[in-house]
Amino acid sequence: MSRRTSTLHRLVDKWFGLTQASPLRVVRVKSKGVHPSRCICVEAQRPVGRLSILFFRHEDGIWRVFPPSSNGPSMNALRLGA
């Protein structure tokens, strides 16, 4: 699978192995801040219990199972004028 074609549907197929015997449901959708990052939780009931996976949409539009990196604090050296 190409990195450019990582749609949410393909990731769900990959991680859950869709069958009609195990229906899925989306249980949470989040957006936050000025630049919304989408997070969707998909659930399936399995014989051993419930399986939940979070899917994150990155700035490039690709869905992944890990969150996008945040722009955290950084240091910067300032030039002081004399």
Provide a compact summary of the structure:
With 82 residues, the chain is mostly beta strands. The protein is 11% helix and 32% strand.
Continuous helix count = 1
Strand order of the largest sheet: 1-2-3-4
* Helix/strand structural class: mainly beta
Instruction: Characterize the largest beta sheet: strand count, sense, and whether it forms a barrel.
Output: 4 strands, antiparallel
Distance between the termini: 56 Å
Low-confidence stretches: none
Helicity range of the residues?
A: 10-25%
The SSE order reads HEEEE
Shape: elongated
- How many E strands? 4
Radius of gyration: 18 Å
The pLDDT mean sits at 76
Strand share of the residues?
Answer: 25-35%
Key terms:
mainly beta; single chain; 4 strands; four-stranded antiparallel beta sheet; 1 helix
